[in-house]
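Fold this sequence, please.
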Amino acid sequence: QVQLVESGGGLVQAGGSLRLSCAASGRPISSYAMGWFRQAPGKERESVAAISRSGGNTYYSPSVKGRFTIFRNNAKNTVYLQMNSLKPEDTAIYYCAAKLENRNNYYTSLRYEYDYWGQGTQVTVSS
């Protein structure tokens, strides 16, 4: 079992940047495909980005592609989400998720495929 703790959220003006971190404990995240999701008030939780175990394959939702970057440091057991050019519509609680995975290059944006979730970190973008 792996435990996930997100950090790095906060209040930022539109156009600004934030870097979210997801620190894992309990097991090496090198065994897991990882993803970032977000949930705004009154909306469904949606996929933002995903990354394979190796880090060589990534996915971005169309709404964040070109602005957000997901990357991982397996030696530090941490996954990151660099968010640039933030917009008010990026305001949400951001969640980190882990999927135990045998395939080195597999990644997924499907919420139901993930096995473990963090508690979330709030990101608020003011206009």
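The chain is about 0% helix and 50% strand. The longest strand covers residues 92-100.
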